[in-house]
Design goal:
By secondary structure, the chain is an alpha+beta fold. Helix content is 26%, strand content 25%. The strands form five sheets. Strands 9, 12, 15, 16, 17, 18 and 19 form a seven-stranded mixed sheet that branches. A four-stranded antiparallel sheet has the order 1-8-6-3, with no helix packed on it. Strands 5-4-2-7 form a four-stranded antiparallel sheet, with no helix packed on it. A hairpin with a 2-residue loop joins strand 13 and strand 14.
């Protein structure tokens, strides 16, 4: 009995997906809940598991196809064993007088693909001199490049040309739906918001000392490492309370002030940036923040992040410092009006009470929508972040 595989519901406002890749081919055995195919939407990448055990009977949607929610992906022959490895072929008896296999004729110029013909003409090559490895002996772009890479054997001294043609290769890859959406949203944010960035710097000595003092007992008690992000989330929440415009958004001719704090934490994956949200972060403890971030990080790396995980954010924090960034201007995560950029911690000489000392310093960047956040408010917000980090006990005492 055949069991249909269809595109599942992918979340609110998502109506279609693009086939990324199939993990199985027709005839392969599959187990229940084993991943069959990867779907790319404009928000996340999801894997569709097998609903039953059996054999992948038919694939109806090839990689690259865009199909609607509910569309047929393929079918499984339930309970049927998949294809096994083919038995070794019996050795054929030698023929009395073997006849050489016919050699495919070299294709004429008219049979070359446009890309191959262009490469042949631009490099002044003779198609008859290029061994074809394609179907029926056709010449591929790779054959042309291989010919160009072969060293020439001149019969007479040859002078060096003024400018040699490049033999470098290039690869054209279609953007994933997630990457297309990232590109569109970032450009829309630039085109829509009156975006401006202000900077400050913070002495991380107090946070680092507190973290070093309690990190072992914290991990032993809560089962998760004490990172820097929980300190930044706590400091950001206090700053958002003091400067509510940074936690607001524009809706038509209205400004919507949010009296809750859903903090998005940008997570980099091999398929692009995703921003899962700490819902009602003001109610989370340091351990709760670290556990939630760790769980989101694992889901993102495993490709299991859900659309619901990334909805409802009111403010975003992004950490370019983990990649070594010293300073940057983050782009708003629309429709939010603010995003905080963390950066690398570097020891630098600074003046403290008239004395030059070496301290672990971090540059902070706040990109904000100047339509709703004034310069004074933006600067005040960063000062509040700085105060909360340089005196982390303030977060404990809710100051």
């Amino acid at each position: 009995m055949s069991k249909e595989i269809r595109v599942p519901a992918l979340g609110e406002s998502v109506t279609e997906a693009t086939i990324g890749k199939w993990f199985k081919k027709e005839g392969d055995a599959v187990k229940v809940d084993e991943p069959l195919v990867e779907l790319e939407t404009d928000k996340v990448t999801v894997e569709v598991p097998s609903p039953v055990s059996g054999k992948l009977e038919k694939i109806n949607a090839a990689p690259g196809m865009t199909i609607a929610v509910g569309a047929l992906l393929g079918s499984i022959a339930e309970g049927v064993a998949g294809a096994s490895a083919p038995a070794p072929a019996k050795a054929a008896a030698p023929a009395a007088s073997p006849t050489p296999a016919p050699v495919a004729a070299k294709p004429a110029d008219a049979t070359l693909s446009p890309a191959v013909r262009k490469a042949v003409v631009e490099n002044n090559l003779n198609p008859a001199d290029i061994p074809g490895t394609g179907k029926d002996g056709r010449i591929t772009k790779g054959d042309v490049l291989a010919t160009l890479e072969k060293p020439a054997t001149p019969t007479a001294p040859v002078s060096m040309p003024a400018a040699a043609a490049s033999t470098g290769t290039e690869e054209r890859v279609k953007m994933s739906r997630l990457r297309q959406t990232i590109a569109r949203r970032l450009k829309d944010a630039q085109n829509t918001a009156a975006m401006l960035t202000t900077f400050n710097e913070v002495d991380m000595s107090a946070v680092m000392a507190l973290r070093n003092q309690y990190k072992d007992v914290f991990e032993k008690k809560h089962g998760v490492k004490l990172g820097f992000m929980s300190f930044f989330v706590k400091a950001a929440i206090q700053a958002l309370r003091d400067v509510p415009a940074v936690n607001a958004e524009i809706d038509g001719e209205d400004i919507v002030y949010k009296n809750y704090y859903n903090i998005g934490v940008a997570v980099g994956t091999d398929k692009g940036l995703v921003v899962p949200v700490l819902q009602d972060a003001e109610n989370l403890s340091f351990a709760g923040i670290e556990k939630t971030i760790a769980a989101y990080g694992k889901k993102a790396r495993d490709g299991q992040i859900q659309i619901a995980d990334m909805q409802g954010g009111t403010f975003t924090i992004t950490n370019g410092g983990i990649y070594g960034s010293l300073m940057s201007t983050p782009i708003l995560n629309a429709p939010q009006s603010g995003i905080l950029g963390m950066h690398a911690i570097k020891e630098r000489p600074i003046a403290v009470n008239g004395q030059v000392v070496i301290r672990p310093m971090m540059y902070l960047a706040l990109s904000y929508d100047h339509r709703i956040v004034d310069g004074k408010e933006a600067v005040t917000f960063l000062v509040r972040i700085k105060e909360g980090l340089e005196d982390p006990q303030r977060a404990i005492l809710d100051l």
